[in-house]
Amino acid sequence: MMQETFFNISQTLTIGGCALVVVLITSVIHHWIGKITRWWDPKWASFLFSLVIGVIVQLQFIEVLEPLHILVILWNNCLIYLTAVGFNAAVGRPVEVLAEISDAQKKGKTEDEYTPFIISSEETWRTRWFA
Hints:
This protein is mainly alpha-helical. The chain is 55% helix and 5% strand. The chain has helices spanning 9-33, 42-59, 67-91, 103-106; strands spanning 97-100, 118-120. The protein has a two-stranded antiparallel ribbon. It is elongated, with a radius of gyration of 20 Å. The N and C termini lie far apart (42 Å). 17% of the residues are buried.
């Protein structure tokens, strides 16, 4: 059953709390792994965490699941993900590039003849997910 009020403060706190949990979980795992790999990308991981956590938390407040609730759950999951990404972008620090292959080193060589690399500082739990 839909509530009489359209929007209240508890909904905002629920979305904010879920976003904070997503940021903390993703940041801690990203700190443990230390870099973006083929199997770990904090952008996609935070999206999956926001879906799982959002659905679990929001199903606690629904007595009877109606089709409209599914749309509300999807919308709230998008808000949780966007809030988590925004919080990480505001608080996180970018990865500092310490060295990169210069154009002089690349000159005259094909891409197969040299291995492009970027040396960066170690990524921590405060590193931004989106570079």
